[in-house]
Structures are given as C-alpha cells and as structure tokens.
Amino acid sequence: MRWSQTLIPTMKETPEGAEIPSHVLMLRAGMIHQLMAGAYTYLPLGYRALRKAEQIIRQEMDKAGAVEVHMPALTPIQLWEQTGRVEAFGDVLIKFDVRRQGKKVPMALGPTHEEIVTDLVKKFVSSYRQLPLTLYQIQTKFRNEERPRFGVLRTSEFLMKDAYSFDSTVEGLNANYDRMYAAYCTIFRRCGVDYLAVEAESGPIGGDASHEFMAIADNGEDSVLYDPKSGYAANQERAETGKRTVAKSTVEPKPLTKLHTPGVGSIEAVSKFLKCKPHQMLKTLIYTADDKPLAVLIRGDHEANENKIRRAVGAKKLALADAALVEAITGAPVGFAGPVGLKQPVPIWADDDVAGMANMIIGANEADQHYVGANLERDFQVEKFADLRNATAGDPSPRSDGKLELRHAIEIGHVFKLGTKYSEAMGAKFLDDKEQQHTIIMGCYGIGVNRILASLIETKSDANGVVWPMSIAPYEVIVSSVNAADAEVSAAADKLYGELQAAGVDTLYDDRDQRPGVKFKDADLIGIPLRVVVGGRGLKEGNLELKWRTKEAPEMIPLAGAAEAIAKLVAGERDRYR
Amino acid sequence: MRWSQTLIPTMKETPEGAEIPSHVLMLRAGMIHQLMAGAYTYLPLGYRALRKAEQIIRQEMDKAGAVEVHMPALTPIQLWEQTGRVEAFGDVLIKFDVRRQGKKVPMALGPTHEEIVTDLVKKFVSSYRQLPLTLYQIQTKFRNEERPRFGVLRTSEFLMKDAYSFDSTVEGLNANYDRMYAAYCTIFRRCGVDYLAVEAESGPIGGDASHEFMAIADNGEDSVLYDPKSGYAANQERAETGKRTVAKSTVEPKPLTKLHTPGVGSIEAVSKFLKCKPHQMLKTLIYTADDKPLAVLIRGDHEANENKIRRAVGAKKLALADAALVEAITGAPVGFAGPVGLKQPVPIWADDDVAGMANMIIGANEADQHYVGANLERDFQVEKFADLRNATAGDPSPRSDGKLELRHAIEIGHVFKLGTKYSEAMGAKFLDDKEQQHTIIMGCYGIGVNRILASLIETKSDANGVVWPMSIAPYEVIVSSVNAADAEVSAAADKLYGELQAAGVDTLYDDRDQRPGVKFKDADLIGIPLRVVVGGRGLKEGNLELKWRTKEAPEMIPLAGAAEAIAKLVAGERDRYR
User: Fold this and answer.
1) pTM reported for the whole predicted model
2) Which residues of chain A have a CB within 8 Å of the CB of B71?
C-alpha cells in the first residue's frame, strides 16, 4: 500500500485526554479515532493489526477443533431474563424496544452469548452422539461502560472471540478446557504477547474453575500475585497465600478503653481521627453464610475475600449482612461493629494475621464509639483462624518458600469451566446411550481481540513509538524513499515495492514527498518491524539501508537482489511467531 | 472437517413459516437458525459461505484501491440529527439511551455510515493532496424491519460492505464510480451470481446517479424493466419508456354525466362500484412542486412516478399536497379530485397515455361524486403531456424498437454518486492548490453480503437442494464413506480426507455411520460441488465414485492418485471464478 493512497493520520503531540501509552500511541500512530466515549473507529493501520490478531485466533481455534458460527448482536430480552442476567448485568446490558407493526419488541445487544448459544444447542443437540461440540465466533460485543477510558482497553463496543464447549462428561469438559488453554497459550505466543495464565475466580459468569490470561503491564487494571520461584500466579481475588506463621504479639497489653469517635466509621476516618495506622485496627464484618450470621475479623489494612470466607466456612452462599441485621447483632449502626460485647452471639472467624495483633482498635458496638487496647483471648475469642483475605505483595507463596509479588496486568483472555449453570437454567439436555437424560456440561472461553493490540503497545513500545511483532504488524516492511521527487529514487523505490509485493511481503510504501526526518519518525511511530530506505548516497552506490525497529544501527545491502534478501529476513522473523 | 465434529442440522421437512427457496433451503441445509424475527444465527455451513463471499469482496475492494477501516455500530445520535436522518429513517433507525454516571447518553445503531465516515474524513482530510481516498468496511448493520421476512433477505441485522469515495473533482468521482462499478461486476461474477446492473433512483440516500446490482429472481421484491434487445435495464422507479405514440381514441364520446358514488374514493373501490376497469379511469393527483400546486393526470391502472414528474416540471422538490390544500383546490375531500371544474386553477400535466383515453371516469371535485364520459379538450385541457408514470411490461424500450420486460429481482449491491449531500451538511471541505476551500465530492457503494447467498440459492438450487458455485461453497468437496463402520472403508476415507486437506482442498468428510441414502440426500441438500464416495463395490475394485452436484451421472476414478486428480478438478472449477 502506498502511504499517499491510504489514511495514516499520525500526530506529533500527545492527544488530550489520553493517559496511557497504548491510548496515546494508537491515536498518534493514526490507528484509531474516537467516534464518541467508548466507541472507536479503527483506521487502516489499526484495522490491519486487529485482523492479523483475529486471523491467528481463528487458525488456532480451528486447529483445536472448534467450529465457527456467528450469532446475532440483537438478542431477545427473554433469554437474559431466563438466567437472571438482566439484573446481574444492570446498566452494562444495552437494552431497548424496537417498534414493529405498532408493537414494542424488547431486545438487548449481546454482551456475551452464553444464553444464545445454549438455546441454540438445546434446539439441535439431543444425543450424546452429537457431543462433544465446541462452537466459537469472533464478533462485536456491546457492554455499556459507566466510564469508558484507556482507549480501546475499556469501551462499550469491542471485538471478542467467544467459544463454548458442550460435553456429556466432566472428563470431556476437562479435555476441552485443556485444549482451549493450550490454544490460548499458542495464540498469545504467536501474537507476541508476554502473558501469564493465572488462576481466577469465575466471577459473575459463574462455574467451577477458571484461568485468566494476563499481559503484565504497569497500567493494567487487574492485580495479579506471582511467585517467580514456583511460577504460581493468580488473580488477586483468587490468590492463596502460603501458611502464614503468625507469632503472637509480645507487646505489653494495654487496658481496654472506650473512646468517643463521633461520626467516624470507616478505617480511613478512624485512623485519621485517632492518628493510628490501618494495620493497628481490626475490621469486623457481619455476613450471612447460607443465611446464618457470621462475624469475620480482618486486619485494617487488608481486604476481606468473600470467596475464601465462603469456602472456609463451607457455605454455598455468602453475602454482607444488611443494615438491619448488623444493628440487630451489634446493637449499633454499620461502621461500629467489633468482637467485644456483641448483642447476639455469632460465630467469629478471623484471618490468620489477626493472631499477631495486639492493642487493637475495634468498633465498640455502639454508635460513635470505638475501643482501643483490645486484645485476643483477654477481650474476645475467635472460633477459627484461616486465610480469609486477598493476598498481597510480600505474602508467602502457597507453592514455594518464596514470596508473592504484586503485578498489574491487562486481562486478554479467560477460560471457564461453566459446568451446568446455563444448560440447567435453559434446559439443554442430552440422552446417554441408555436413553437417560442428563444436563449438558459447558465451558466458555473468551479473548478480547482489541486488548491484544493495546497490551502489545503497553508492554513493547519505546520512546519513539509502537514496536510491533512481525505477526501483528499492520505491514511487515516499510519502504521509505528519500527525496521522492527525484525520478531515479522513485523509480528504484517503485520497483522494490513491486518486487516485495510480488514476493508476498506486506509492504507499506512511504511515497510522500516529505523530509527524511519526518518519514523516519513516522516509520518509528507506527512501529513497522523493518524499514528500508531508498535514496541518498546509498542508492548512488547501489545500496539500500535496512533498519530493524528494535535495533539502533542500520545496515546496508546491495540493491541488486534486495527484494529476495528482505523477503528472506521477513520469513525468518515470521517463523518466530508460528 | 468431519461431519461428526461440526453442527450441520439438516432437516427433511419444509420448516414452518418459510415461503421462498432461499429461506427453506438455508434452514433445511442447516446453514442458519432464527434467534428471533429478523435475526439469524449463521451455523457453520452458512458462516463458511458468508465468509467466502466476504473474502472475495475484500480482495476486489483492495484491488480497486479502497482501504479497509472499521467504524463502530454504536453512533452518537447527534450526527444523524445533523443531516435530518433521524426523521428520514424513522422506526428503521434503532435508537436508545445508555446510562452513564447518572446521565442518559443517546445513541443509534448504524444502519449505514455516511454521517460517520464524513465526520471522520472531515477531521483528517484538509488538502487536495490527501484526495482521492476510498474507505470501506465489511460490518454488521442494523435496520429495524417493520415485518422481517424471507429468511436472510429482510432482517434487522445484516452484513454489509459499505465503501465511501472522497474526491476533489467531479472527474475524480466519476473515475472512482467507474472503478467501483467494475469491481462490483467482478465480485458478483466471482460469486457466481447472475446479475444485472440497472439504472436506479438514488432514493433516500440522495445524490446524482446510481446503479443497482440485481440478481434476477422470481421471489425478488424489486421490479426491473429490461430490454433484451439493447441491454437497457432499470429499476421500475427509474426506468424510462421509449416515446409512446398514443393515438387519439376513435370511440364515440359520451355525454359527461355525474354519478353518486358514496364513500367510494380509491381506484379499486370506484372500479368495483361502477363495474369498470382501472384503465378506463383517470387518477388526478395534486402535488406541490417547489411549493406551487400542480395537478397530474395518470391512467387508473398506472403508477405515478414522482421523480419523473419532478424532473418534467423542472422542480427541485415535489410532494403530494396535504388534505387541506387538496380541499382548497378541488373543493372536495381527498379521493374525489378530477380535472373538470377545479375550484382554483392550477397547471394540469398528464402522462402520455392519457392522450389516448376517451369517456373517462374522473372525480367530480365533490364528496361522493364522480363523472363518467369525461373527454379531453371537450371537458378539460391539459397543459403538457410527458412520461410521468412508472414503466411497465410491454412499454416501448427507450433504447431500441423492442419492448420492456418486467423482471423480479433481489438487490445485492448499489453504487451512488452522492455529490456533496453529506459533505455539505457536515462541513467536510478541502483546500485546493490555490488555497481555495471547496466541499469534498462523495460516492457511496454498498453490497448486502447475506443477500449474495440468498440470491444464489433463489436462482441456482434444484429440487434436491442448494447448488453452490465452487467459489462460495462452504466446502469444495464432500467425502462420503459408505458403511463407515467397516474398518477398510473408514481407513480409505480417512486417508483420502487427509490427502485432500494436505492438497489445500476445502473438504467436508461425512464420517457418520448412516445409510448411504441419507448421506447422499444430505450432500445434495447442502450443495457441495463435488461428491466423492468411498466404499462398496467401487472400493473393492480400487475405485472411487465422483459426482458433480450439477450432473446426473457419477463417474469412477482409481483410488490410487485420487486426491491429486480431485485437487486438479477443484482447481479447474476454482479458475472459473477468479
């Protein structure tokens, strides 16, 4: 493609409102343009990169035995009501009525397609003979973002690869899950992304087991705990900690003293008011576990982890108690709960770290009152200690004697063992070889295609611009003519461009009549892996200048046979991403 | 792909509610599934065919110098308000508010992208040096259908290729238009569609000149007038007629007589009430042409053509008069207008055919009254005769001494010279080489990708099912094993399948343990061009059976070297669609 015939609106300045490198550089490199908050047009360079990622995903899905389909974006609201997800998604689900023959027809734009695909399979699959089956699509999804931001990382419309597996046995699901997991590893490797597969909670989509594929990036919104020693990695919501051996405090116990703390309920407010640190304070959280009340104690600087609590107490359902229940149990409004002097006796569980605390600051179960100098055993009893909080940096690894590190990351993929959550709700069943009916067992597998581009830029760009891997680069080679107005130069460049195209090299030809400095800066900014300069003294001497985007120094090669030599270099680099 | 690993839910029976062959066969061949009225899931076979059409379109667009982009489906309502198309589209435009941070944000789903692309180009193009530029996308479009029907022919969500050209001169637009026209001819030829490029009115999108690409099909909703002698073809709305030499009637004039026709206003009602034929009646239509009133006379069995009327009288704007104006001019409610005794004198124009009428039945400009026996000159005068009606079958051709034939057709593509309609409304301008500002000149070019499939099936299927051209067929070859449970058969079939895949032949392997009759019927139904049967006596004799979908008789070829022979046959057939 000739630069003069396409649309690559590069910019010198950092665009207003863009904060992170991927957003800044995608705008500056002329890859995207914001149509409105949360919706971007992909310009020619951006769309080429996106389609290359899409094509790698498609190839690996096909190899993994998944079959491509395409479901509508317009979906009937009834299917979402059937699984309770109209409420679960809330304002994220874009829903509306269309008018047909004087009637209103309620619809929603698909934010994901579990309901739709389960309904489809329910209609066409009835026997174990038709299973296993894995369907996928690469399709635009719609999720209203309360605050769209970070360029293409958080938008209301995005390209997603979503796959769904259907099995008659748990072993089948496990095999499908492993196959998808392996395909994901191949996809991200081929896209040149440095990824980490981390254990994850399954979140609102539900199910039994899941992994997230994360690109480790400083500007990522997700937090991952990683043990370099064992390779253990997990989403912060999910991460275990190794057994914390917490020594009992040897500090001299102080007397338990009640203090007036008017209108001061949160950890932050109390620590400000009493001039103490959050880790000296104790949070007392009242939950209902399978509808029975429970108090959970967590050190003030830690975050309770509801999944860990639910699993520790062996409950199916765990929820924070409402204000009325908190008041009934503590005798005080929310914000002043503490383990000393509860109105109603409830089981008290504590996170392991609480065992090492002394002279704690706790709520006094009275409005506007706190205790200082609270101590375990002397002032209150704990029924059981366990790992009940989010892991954090410095925690012992659950898999080695090392420590966990906290990393920021961008979620680019997610694999779930759904089990029968959707097939049960929607009645998708099959008959086994004895004519017995069972519920189909499902998995689901997503990739955010746009995020592959953004995470590559977040992690691989440099001060001069984007640095694409050969597999995703919108063009593999850029031919820049120096002094394009010179007939000899443009003839040589035209010829090379033609030869490279004929050799199957994806070539961008910067044929603009611009100063070399402008052309070289633009070539660096848009990140094409290999730059070929035609012109100047080199050309007079029968040479071309080659420069890899990742290297400082250029090299000269003879003009004769240049296209063949360049094609060979490109092929070698392509091989790294096969 | 093995049949057992994909999802091809063929059906024996004609599904309920499906009326036309493309709808029936796409359902029966397991290509599509209706999620709700107007929204279809593309199942594996359907999606493969759709993607093949998409890929041909992409290749030809790239060759024609168009550059691919991707605009969002979510669009800000403001852009549609700027051009008045919120009203023009009415209920067809799917619009809604999303909630963000407590505020409502109004949006519309793009039914087409003139506004969006013009806004984009306005932001990035400012100089003649950046022109010409042609952008295209292949993207899901949303248009609410009042009554979705005919399978994928009329849906609320569909795949469209839309391209937009931007030029600094009219010559540039003409060159771009011609290039796109030629690309469309190549695309439809490569897709195997028998198409006709017909002259068309530009309709609500507006502009100066346009052609529609039509697949001639009995079930098409469009009407085309075609002169086989000259090759002239035009949409019915647009079609000219040759000069109609209308002889004055020689019938004896009857006296003008007023009749009481209570509550009877329409042509149909009057002809029923008076037991006469529509061609004996005269329609009198009151228009405003550039806000001045005008009466137009059309024979009762003909349809007025507003574009012809507008052009004939030399007006910029033409609209039917409202009820108040009709009453002011005729003195009667709508339905009883006639050229005799109008209350206010207005210019009276008549279609050429009116010159040959005698003893006409006309409205009497009085409620519930008609005249019979009305005659030209004696009873009323016509200011001018002209071609003011839709052409119809039997009309003289405007390009030869032949007659026009009426054909039904499916619109599959459309090219428009838009001119400055959108660039003017949205302020998309450029500076010429003398720093003078001008408005960018646009063209737009659409293809309904789903309709390519539907029109192929409408025109090429037979009693046994779909008949795909090699270029669009979801698979090029189907290998059917006869007695798949036989180890020798399945080993031979497995081997052939592997070899065909290695040879780059798109192969579907029907590995099901089903009776040959079922397999052959399914192979015919889904329309794969070449069927290869492995098994039976043939295999024992070292042979395979080949059968083209379009031929009656199979032929035998030796098993040894079969893959190579089949690949050669497929390559030959592919060449027909290059």
Assistant:
1) 0.92
2) 35, 41-42
